[in-house]
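Re: your question from the hallway

Yes, I did run it. Sequences:
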Amino acid sequence: GAVVSQHPSWVICKSGTSVKIECRSLDFQATTMFWYRQFPKQSLMLMATSNEGSKATYEQGVEKDKFLINHASLTLSTLTVTSAHPEDSSFYICSASKGGVYNEQFFGPGTRLTVL
Amino acid sequence: AQSVSQHNHHVILSEAASLELGCNYSYGGTVNLFWYVQYPGQHLQLLLKYFSGDPLVKGIKGFEAEFIKSKFSFNLRKPSVQWSDTAEYFCAVKGGNTPLVFGKGTRLSVIA
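Structure:
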């Protein structure tokens, strides 16, 4: 159990367009979902934390108007990169937590975004 | 806020050599500790985790880690590495209700 999927796995878009990435918990209800960004050969940097039905909490330095997060249900969170630019090109990874005492996070396979 | 430090950026070992990757964290309270592995082109996988109890934790694929509270450390070990262990290894810390914070990662290259 505890499988997290992401769609799409990779996307190429033109500068100025918006891209939506989906994160789904397939076999459990995720009270909390997290969005990370990973630049080549670097670690994962937390972008935001979202709880189902409430606004996401963004980390310092992350533009909330640029990276729109919607956690509409206990199994789905979306990240929309608005007006994407080449510097937004990165690997975006989501994770989901069942909540409770252990709060372990289960990671999705990631989405590679390339903005031309 | 917690932080995680991984001492080694890139480690190169021959097959059958022993491995130890360092991880230190800073956080004042109770922590949960994790090691994740990312094989080339694949997503993060959990190797092992520590929540409480025996500070020596055994994970998958022969890996283990020891939590030393006095040193704020959670080093990863494997007695004999294989070529298939070539990957990026991330130490991560979770304090209280805060999200996971990752170290910068250590790239392990195992040569035949």
